[in-house]
Amino acid sequence: MDSIAHGRDGIAIGWKNPDGSTEMLAADAVVVCAGVASRRFAAMLGDRINIYPVKGYSITAHLDDERSRAAAPTQHLESISVQDRRTPAG
Ligand SMILES: Cc1cc2nc3c(=O)[nH]c(=O)nc-3n(C[C@H](O)[C@H](O)[C@H](O)COP(=O)(O)OP(=O)(O)OC[C@H]3O[C@@H](n4cnc5c(N)ncnc54)[C@H](O)[C@@H]3O)c2cc1C
Prior knowledge:
The chain is an alpha+beta fold and 90 residues long.
């Protein structure tokens, strides 16, 4: 999909085929679910979807005793220590 716009017959969705030809489809409604491309397509319809990529890592560590569980952070970490390593998380 390359373009999406309000048209006379609803919403016009346009795309280019591998052979270079273009096609258009008219729809009554669309669901924008194009991942990080959603922002661009929503903008074509005059909407603002604040979707953007972020980078993060996560790990799973055994927290066998109550003291470890109580001390474990639960959200938005910048880094976490596991044994002798520090691993980014978020
Ligand atoms: C390496 C990696 C690991 C991840 N691990 C996890 C995890 O462990 N747990 C977790 O919860 N999340 C994880 N995520 C995040 C998760 O994959 C995304 O949050 C989720 O897939 C977003 O879903 P979505 O349907 O919004 O978008 P997407 O899954 O990105 O789907 C968007 C779709 O739109 C299509 N599209 C885009 N542009 C166009 C276009 N112009 N024309 C036609 N189609 C188009 C794409 O081809 C795709 O099929 C991970 C992501 C990555 C990259």
